[in-house]
Design brief:
3-stranded antiparallel β-sheet, SH3 type barrels, about 190 residues
Amino acid sequence: MTRCHLTTLLRALAAASAMVAAGSIVALGENAAPPAAADAAQGQEVAQKQDEQSTKTIEKIIEESESVLSGRGFTYDPAGRRDPFRSLVEQTKADKGPRPKGIAGMLISEVDLVGIVQKGKDNLAFFNGSDNKGYFLRVGDQLYDGRIIQINRTTGQVVFRQEINDPRSIKPYRDITKRLYSAEEEKL
């Protein structure tokens, strides 16, 4: 519906409501004693105030509908869910800039778990990086696309929390597990 149609419709509605209000004043006057000049003036003031109020309401409705149509009056709070208004086809990737040197610049898929050792109460995971150097990492250490959230020496597993930027995914991360294999398992 265009603005012109909406304006015309709302003005007609306001005029009808003013006529109903004026008619009810006249109807009250018919059942009561004949209206005095003061009562007639008071009835006109009431009708005029209602007409002004109706005009203000119409203008407010038109302004709000225009703001919604132009996109100014609408916001969306996803509250942790995927935004349904973002395109699923378009891949949006946040560029973190150039990769730093060392293990902090390597992807989770680029490092290989070699072993897990215990140092005091902490477990350390030994990784071979893409630069063929060895790195000892603790829980909380950061790689380029994620961080270590768990090291379990008894099961031989290291769990990474990888940050993903996929609009189809509900969660902005996924957990990746790397594990050690025994000599018999490697032969299979």
